[in-house]
UniProtKB/TrEMBL annotation:
Disordered: region residues: 362-386
Protein name: XdhC family protein
Domain annotation XdhC Rossmann: ranges: 203-350
Classification via Pfam families: XdhC_C, XdhC_CoxI
Top-level taxonomy: Bacteria, Bacillati, Actinomycetota, Actinomycetes, Mycobacteriales
Compositional bias (Polar residues): 372-386
InterPro entries: MoCofactor_Util/Proc, XdhC_CoxI, XdhC_Rossmann_dom
Domain XdhC- CoxI: 12-78, 118-180
Domain of life: Bacteria
Length: 386
């Protein structure tokens, strides 16, 4: 929903009703991830996308019908010879889309949710997307780290979903959870879509050099909140890094240690060390590699620099296990030379490590194009067995 929130709030603020289709599950290859949404305004205008064009027409028709009836619908779209170029996915994937009518009456807390998202306060929306009792479909809970609003129809269901959703929120994960009709953990019948809106993932770029400007631009493009940090004020200026969200003048290791202590990094945080100077990068890498909560740590330099750096880090007491977390020399082997090309290789490695990719050319590989999380893999395996 976050990608269509501006369009949705326009209708909500005006007192109208919008039809919102949200991707809640994907199987095999799919063009958009869970959480991608499309909103249909009362005047028929459309914002967002759920499939990159394959099934938008069908979802549009369904959304206009849901606006009229007020009854939410969970609809599956897949590939078949008959519908491949009508309402099917030509990529061969399968997606489940939940379509609901959203207005001030059906979702009075939406304004609070929008404010949370805008201020980077973590919040999750848990919505019943399937249930034996049709009257409970569409019910929702708002879950924050220390509070919850709403009900899914029973205290038992609320307690189970709140507990599980807080775990997903902490990890920044969005997915469908399955329960029995009354929230039984080992049961079936109730599907709850948990959309997590955690704070924006961070990219911390250390070293105010020309490569850092290109890396910051790539990070911003990928949706990271980018910080550039350097101890030298003559180089660490906002003018040199216009795409960075902030430029910090501080010793890199001191800044990172303070961010870790403040709980401002998590498993989605990426650290790019571009300093090339042992007096900066060795103390910084000591801090970064001792922090298991940081998801990616990469350092620029030649192979000789890498070997010398590893020797210094071992002397500082880092273990082999900690050193295996270091991506150095940073980036995938794309053959690039310029700062911009190098930044693309770094971004490619970050993406590959996040999703379990291997960086090989797709023309030389088989199987799935899109890597999935373990949860989606389990869903796909279950679908293939059925």
């Amino acid at each position: 929903m976050q990608d269509v929130l501006t369009d949705l709030m326009t209708t909500w603020n005006a007192g109208g009703t919008a039809g919102v289709g949200t991707v809640v599950r994907t199987f095999r290859s799919s063009p958009r991830p869970p959480g991608a949404a499309m909103v249909v305004a009362p005047d028929g205008t459309v914002g967002g996308s759920v499939s990159g064009g394959c099934v938008e027409g069908a979802v549009y028709e369904l959304a206009t019908d849901v606006i009229r009836t007020g009854s939410p619908v969970l609809q599956r779209y897949g590939f078949s010879d008959e519908d491949a170029f009508a309402v099917g996915l030509t990529c061969g994937g399968i997606i489940d889309i939940f379509v609901e009518a959203i207005s001030r009456e059906t979702f009075p807390e939406l304004g609070e949710v929008a404010a949370d998202i805008a201020d980077h306060r973590p919040v999750a929306i848990a919505t019943v997307i399937e249930h034996p009792d049709a009257g409970r479909t569409g019910r929702r809970l708002l879950i924050r780290p220390g509070s919850a609003q709403g009900t899914l129809g029973s205290a038992r269901a609320d307690d189970a979903v709140i507990d599980d959703a807080r775990g997903l929120l902490a990890a920044g994960r969005t997915e469908v959870l399955s329960y029995g009709p009354d929230g039984q953990r080992r049961g079936e019948g109730m599907g709850v879509f948990v959309a997590s809106y955690a704070r924006q993932p961070r990219m911390l770029v250390f070293g105010a050099i020309d490569f850092a400007a290109a890396v910051a631009q790539q990070g911003s493009f990928l949706g990271y909140r980018v910080t550039v940090c350097d101890a030298r004020p003559i180089f660490a200026t906002s003018a040199r890094f216009p795409t960075a969200d902030e430029v910090v003048i501080d010793w890199p290791h001191r800044y990172l240690a303070a961010q870790i202590a403040a709980g401002a990094v998590d498993s989605r945080t990426v650290v790019c060390v571009l300093t090339h100077d042992p007096k900066f990068d060795v103390p910084l890498l000591e801090v970064a590699l001792r922090a298991p909560e940081i998801g990616y740590v990469g350092a620029m330099g030649s192979r000789r620099t890498h070997d010398q750096r590893l020797a210094r880090l071992r002397e500082a007491g880092l273990t082999d296990e900690q050193l295996t977390r270091l991506a150095s020399p940073i980036g995938l082997d794309l053959g690039g030379r310029t700062p911009e090309e190098t930044a693309v290789s770094i971004a490619a490695e970050i993406i590959a490590r996040r999703w379990g990719g291997h960086g090989a050319s797709l023309t030389r590989t088989g199987g799935r194009i899109h890597h999935t999380t373990s949860a989606n893999s389990e869903l796909s395996d279950s679908l293939n067995r059925s």
